[in-house]
Specification:
ATP-binding, 312 residues, alpha/beta, six-stranded mixed sheet, 12 helices, Rossmann fold, binds adenosine-5'-triphosphate, elongated
Amino acid sequence: METTPQLATAATDAPASPLAIAASGITKSFGDVRAVDAVDLTVHAGEIVAFLGPNGAGKTTTIDMLLGLSKPDSGSVSIFGRSPRAAIAEGFVSAVLQTGGLLKDLTVRETVQLTASLFTQTRPVDEVLERAGILDIGSRMVGKCSGGQQQRLRFAMALLSDPGLLILDEPTTGMDVTGRRDFWNAIREDAARGRTVIFATHYLDEADAYADRIVLMRHGRIVADGSATEVKNLASGRTVRAVIPEADVAALAAFPGVSSIESRGSATLISTSDSDALARHLFTRTDAHDVEITAHGLEDVFISLTSEGSAS
Ligand SMILES: Nc1ncnc2c1ncn2[C@@H]1O[C@H](COP(=O)(O)OP(=O)(O)OP(=O)(O)O)[C@@H](O)[C@H]1O
């Protein structure tokens, strides 16, 4: 077996190479709960994809099926043109899960060496430590590592087979801000070489900052799929914030494009699909000052597409 067939294929032959993930109509139920409902998902080699969604949306169940840890009730999954199990057996896929698997009394380097000894062929230990950003703490005992360093250690172990696809399920839960940033910087730098990365997260800012593409799930279905900008654009309109002395709330509510008005201290927040017209009105017809216009963010989309009142 060659040392790096997976990544080389993914990085250099993207148009001709098979899709990293091709899932078609995958469905999984637990009793009466349909955890994943006819999901179609196509991921090209080299993409970094975030799975977002509230608790119970079906992210982990989907990931388990991609990893071959559970079988869909119906539908099919193919990873680099193979079944998930075959893809894992051949070293095409690695996972970084949230917990487990680390011995506290080994050093960081010993842990990676031990894992490497289980494979017939791997990338060099120093190389994966370096890519995970933990080469400098190779002699530290695992029990003395922070949560973020332990996650980077799991990342290093996952890199040993040089997988074309890396799957991470909520990898930064419980980490502090610096730990999360260091972890994602290591992932992004590594992914720049062409590795495909899929991660589930609850952190909207992580999806926004580190993913090329966001897949938003709700009740087992995909409700949005696109770049962060495309997904954010689903929450159309902007918020105009202004201090408006003696504001005529009824007149503002009737203004074309305005969908809601809210008071916040001395300021008024107005959601509108035509912020230019509203700002012009405020400046020319009222004594409004401190006017700010902001685009809706990922959080607005998340709430509008995943809250209970929204359409499935
Ligand atoms: N082994 C199981 N047995 C019974 N129900 C399950 C099982 N696994 C998942 N479920 C149910 O399937 C649905 C989807 O769960 P899943 O863990 O995939 O969601 P999630 O998006 O990963 O949620 P979270 O963000 O909380 O991790 C939930 O209603 C959950 O209770």
